[in-house]
Design brief:
alpha+beta
Amino acid sequence: MSNYRSERRISKNKIRRQKELRKNFLLTIMAVCLAITFSFSVNSFLSNAKGESEQISYKYYKSVTISNGDSLWSIAREYMDDEHYSSANDYIKEVKHLNSLKSDYISYGESIIVPYYSYELR
């Protein structure tokens, strides 16, 4: 009978230790997940703080009167910036769309609207 009690006690202790190990393992996993979540949150906050110090550019529109010798290409060279347009063709497409132009031809004395960007708020 004594042998049976001791085996039962050993079995119960084994089960208790397994439960404790399982509980400690789950707590460790939760702590790691919490630490990862916290580090992502801090990283996101810091990256947003860096982005806010960058200058903001504003898009404006200007009326331009075509001079002798002007073309959409020369206007693109003057008003386009590489930060907002990937090519002069993209800028010219926008100018043509803004002014309902069907071709690249513009006439002396004609006025067209051109977009440009500035870091100054007007």
